[in-house]
Amino acid sequence: MHIAIAGNIGSGKTTLTRLLSKHFGWESHYEDVEKNPYLNSFYEDMQRWSFNLQVYFLNSRFRQIIQIRQGKKTVIQDRTIYEDAYIFAPNLHSMNLMTTRDFENYSSLFELMSSFIQPPDLLIYLRSSVSNLVTQIQKRGREYEESIRLDYLKKLNERYEIWINKYDQGKLLIIEVDEINFEDSREDFGMVIEKINAKIHGLF
């Protein structure tokens, strides 16, 4: 089974991936942040590096999905290939941080790749306000994230909502992260577990 966690920067994807992996014994696949050769450059000069970064992520996540589907284990994945294609790349294009030529090239690549993959069996979307995202980003203190602009996060949030409202490729669970603290509260984490079990076993 393939379970994926979607959500804006700072919404808690990596934390929840780690907790669920430990609780259920699922294999975890994380976003390649530390080894990513473009991330620092991208936040320093988004216009110059946006296409390179998005192609890197597309390639990385496509490989992940192939591995997940070829394996025999239940896997939980931190961020999906769809978020790059429906949220991050179009957002960069609309902010004039990616040229139309590059965006069309990227979109064509995604279209081809998506014809070879299946969507996750369960998509968990972490919905968060921009103020909560900012708090979480500051708390974890990644140097390259210090320059993220508020309008950038806001526009991403808007695109996430449009995508999630239209999502019909499989089971979907929406978690309102402003209202809970699954990292520090056992009760809140227990509630998340219950909701996941219900979705997986089709109770509602």
What is the total number of structural domains? Answer: 1
Number of helices: 8
How many extended strands? Answer: 5
- The assigned CATH architecture is 3-Layer(aba) Sandwich
In terms of per-residue confidence, which ranges show pLDDT below 50 for 5 or more consecutive residues?
Answer: none
What form results from the Cα inertia axes? Answer: globular
Q: Provide the spatial order of strands within the biggest beta sheet.
A: 2-3-1-4-5
- Major sheet: 5 strands, parallel
Give the class-level CATH name.
Alpha Beta
- Mean pLDDT over all positions: 91
Spatial extent as radius of gyration: 17 Å
Fill in the CATH topology. Answer: Rossmann fold
What is the helical fraction, as a range of percent? Answer: 55-70%
How big a fraction of the residues is strand?
Answer: 5-15%
The secondary-structure element order is EHEHHEHHEHHEH
Quick summary:
The chain contains eight helices and five strands; from the N terminus they run βαβααβααβααβα. The protein is α/β, with parallel strands linked by helices and 204 residues long.
Task: Give a written overview of the molecule.
Helix 3 (46-70) runs parallel beside helix 5, helix 4 packs antiparallel against helix 5 and helix 4 (81-94) crosses helix 7 (150-166). This protein has a single domain (2-200), classed as Rossmann fold (3-Layer(aba) Sandwich). It has helices spanning 13-24, 39-44, 46-70, 81-94, 100-114, 130-140, 150-166, 186-200, and strands at residues 2-7, 27-29, 75-78, 122-127, 171-176. It is an alpha/beta fold. The protein has a five-stranded parallel β-sheet with strand order 2-3-1-4-5, sandwiched between helices. It starts with a strand and ends with a helix.
